[in-house]
Structures are given as C-alpha cells and as structure tokens.
Amino acid sequence: MLKNYSSTTEFYLLGFPGSKELRDILFATFFSFYLVTMVGNILIIVVVCVDKRLQTPMYFFLGHLSVLEMLTTTVTVPLMLWGLLLPGMQAISLTACCVQLYLYLSLGISEFILFAAMAVDRYVAVCNPLRYIIIMNSHTCLWVVVVSWVFGFLFEIWPVYATFHLTFCKSNVLDHFYCDRGQLFKLSCDNSFFTEFILFLMAVFVLFGSLIPTIVSYTYIISTILKIPSGSGRWKAFSTCASHFTCVVIGYSSCLFLYVKPKQTQAAEYNRVASLMVVVVNPFLNPFIFTLRNDKFIEVFRDAMKSCYRLLKA
C-alpha cells in the first residue's frame, strides 16, 4: 500500500478482527473497564486532596499514580473503542500515531519511577518509622514526582524519534489497536537491528532500574516484619505494603513480557493481549487494590459519603 516514506501520511489500525457481535461485546467490556477506571481514579484524587487525614507521602504518591493511570488509559482506549464501533480499519495520521506512542511510553516510564518511589516510601515507613516524617518530607516528595514526570518525557524523545525516522514501505496497516512500536518496526524496510537493540537496552535500564530499588526495599521490609514479635503487629506492617506490592507484581510482569525483548517485532496476538493488560486491566484493578485493602482510605471515603448524604438531605 505504501511506496516510500514520503507517502506515509497515515496508518490503519486493524484493531480486533472478528464478527460484529464479538466487537460489540468487546466494546461494552472495555468501555465499562474504562469508565470504572476513570471514576475510581478521580475518586482517589478527590479524596486524597480534600481530606487532611490523607495528606501523607503515601497518598500523595497514590494521587499522582492515579493521574498517570488515567492519562495512560486515555491515550489509547478511546481510539480503541472508536475502532470497535466502526466497521473496517481505523485511520490514524502519522503525527497522531507519533504523539500517541510518545505519550504512552513516557507516562509508562513515569509510572515505573513512581512505583519505585512508593517502595522506598514503604521501606522508610516500616524500617525507620521514627525518621519517616523527616526523610519523606513534602519537599522530597514533590522533587520525586517532578523527577518522575520530567525523566519519563525526556527519556522517550530519542526512541520515538528513531522509530518514526524509519522508512515505512511494506504497508500502512498496523495489526494492533494503537500505534505499537513493534508493529511499526514490522512495516519498516530498513535494517533496524541496531535501533531495536538500543531500545531493548533502554527498556532494560528503565524496568530493572526501577525494579531494583523495589526489590531491595521489600527485602528489608520483609526482614523487618519477620522480626516483629506479635502477629497483629506483623499483619499491620504488612498491610501498609500489600497494595503497592500487588500492583508492582501485576504491572512489572506484564511490561516485562511486552517490552524487554531484543526483537521488538512479536506476534500480533501476543502484543494485543499483553497491551490490554497494561492499558485496560491494570488501570482498572489498581484503584480497587489500593482502596479495598486500605482501612484508612475506606474510613475517609465512608465519612465523605456520609457528609455528602447529609448535605443532600438538608
């Protein structure tokens, strides 16, 4: 369909092939997931900002994580839903494809850095509680969040530039529901081995660079928890970390399978399933994981609902 690079003005997203009935089911499912994701994360942000009982580093990071989750899923899911409604393939311009890939990858990197920061925060809270307020002060927390955002958006400039500097001459059909980098490499006629290898090293650097502080932090956390004599004390200490640990396991496992591979090109079905975990399932689960297992958040949320009920009743 394409002759050379200059004629590549748009791509066509194949999305989810199948019957109209299947596409309608997928639309209803993914739309429900997206709606719950947005509402859940908005509630977290509002409650964290409004209630003074949640003005702590852990909830400060959780609020920013919710913002990242909302942006990550919004970058990809609405276009995916629109493609499920329309017959045939979904067109996306070259510029829009570039912007979507850049935002998606940048937000993902910022999220991994924030996960590492939250792990260190839990380490200080469990292993050094007397100095927690001093170490995790407001200046430090703000600095960590700013660094996570800035690093994520600066780090992906060259990878995205290198990807769209390729010559796309094989086709302009992407066998995916968003502008996936692996599928873009499949359309290239250039020898992209060196570029793919550099991107692989960069992915390893980001994922393992943020995973190592998490592993070290939880090693010390588990060691400290095991030394607590009472069972109730051990459970209380563990409960403060359980939500974050669960999200880390789910988030890293899906991204390791998706990005840490020397060859960026991969089976379309494999990429689609792994991508759905990253952009649909994980953002959907995280609000529940962080709230339903958090007694303090549930207490604050219950009080907020009672206050709203009294205002409406008055």
From TrEMBL:
It comes from the Eukaryota. It is a multi-pass membrane protein. One of its GO terms (cellular component) is plasma membrane. Residues 40-290 form the G-protein coupled receptors family 1 profile domain. The keyword Transmembrane applies. InterPro entries: GPCR_Rhodpsn (IPR000276), GPCR_Rhodpsn_7TM (IPR017452), Olfact_rcpt (IPR000725), Olfact_rcpt_6C-like (IPR047132). The keyword Transmembrane helix applies. Keywords: Cell membrane, G-protein coupled receptor, Membrane, Olfaction, Receptor, Sensory transduction, Transducer, Transmembrane, Transmembrane helix. SUPFAM superfamilies: Family A G protein-coupled receptor-like (SSF81321). The chain crosses the membrane at residues 25-50, 59-81, 101-120, 141-161, 197-221, 242-260, 272-292. Its main location: membrane. It is found in: Cell membrane. GO terms for molecular function: G protein-coupled receptor activity; olfactory receptor activity. Putative odorant or sperm cell receptor. This is G-protein coupled receptors family 1 profile domain-containing protein. It comes from Capra hircus (Goat).
